[in-house]
Amino acid sequence: MAEEGLRPIIVKRIKKGGGGHHGGAWKIAYADFVTAMMAFFLLMWLLGSTTKGDLNGISEYFKTPLKVAMSGGSGSGDSSSIIKGGGKDLTRTDGQVKASDDPQVKKTYNLTAAKAALEAEENQRLKALKERIEAKIEANPLLKKYKDQLLLDITSEGLRIQIVDEQNRPMFALAKAELQPYTKDILHEIGFVLNDVPNRISLSGHTDSTPYMSDAGYSNWELSADRANASRRELIVGGMQDSKVLRVVGLASAINLDKADPFNPVNRRISIVVMNRKAEDNVLRDGRKIEVGDTDDAAGIGAAVNAPPAAPPAGPPVRK
């Protein structure tokens, strides 16, 4: 009995752990699983409730997203009813190709009316220029003094400004291309005003029918061309842009102002034409190849070829 009282007493203490290395990680995994299942449920619900037309539109969107984003159209979200057969055609397979379903309105342009409107606007601009030059002539004592030698009118080519000779007041030195001082002043005033319109100009020199003969073969043709070019230089000195000049020609006595009297001093003149668009186009296409069927050009050439030659004047004095 004494030995049994000396037997040691062993107490076993059991330590309760928290799941070892697992801890609470299973809770996070379970939450992810529940979230995935919810997302899957929502996806299946959306697929089941979306019409076929909408699905096709979504498919087209992801095929060509840039095209749909820029132009919009009749793809995703265009159905007006979720019931099969309701609203618009829900079975369409075309992608989004236009911004709306409104019928396209075809624009038509009346070229004839547009051309007529441009011509009318251009005529108004040339008339305004004519009135301004006339007002400048009246306001300037120098120009008003030579009013009778300044002729302004509207022709088929545009606004024509003619500076003509008088018996006792010629524009140029006799039988030369040297401008008189007052002629230079007139051209300076006109040159500055011509910059107010975008139209280009044509210059032509004219003489009367008095023959001009010299030992070197210099004739009225050379004289009229030289006078036209001298006038061009003075217009530029007056402030006109050089690029506005499209044509400079000498016509001698081919086109007299006074047809009844070919020796009238008024036939000696400088003609400045502020050309309209049609006249400019005719000059710019000069010399182009004529195609078969171009009846207008062919008729013009035929008339020029078949025109009778002008009769030479009889018994005029000779310009030296």
TrEMBL record:
Q: Which GO terms describe its cellular component?
A: plasma membrane
The places in or outside the cell where this protein is found are: Cell membrane
Q: Which domain of life is it from?
A: Bacteria
Is Electron transport set as a keyword in this record?
no
So where does this one cross the membrane?
Answer: none
Key words of the record: Cell membrane, Cell projection, Cilium, Coiled coil, Flagellum, Membrane, Transmembrane, Transmembrane helix
Residues forming the OmpA-like domain are 159-278
Where does this protein have compositionally biased stretches of type Low complexity? 299-308
Q: How does this protein lie in the membrane?
A: Single-pass membrane protein
Question: Coiled-coil annotation: which residues?
Answer: 111-139
SUPFAM superfamilies according to UniProt: OmpA-like
Q: Where is this region: Disordered?
A: 299-320
Write down a Pfam family by its short name.
Answer: OmpA
Segments of skewed composition (Pro residues)? 309-320
> Has keyword Cell membrane?
yes
Give the family, as the similarity comment puts it: Belongs to the MotB family.
Fetch the PANTHER family from UniProt. Answer: LIPOPROTEIN YIAD-RELATED, STATOR ELEMENT OF FLAGELLAR MOTOR COMPLEX
Stated name of the protein: Flagellar motor protein MotB
Q: Which organism is it from?
A: Duganella aquatilis
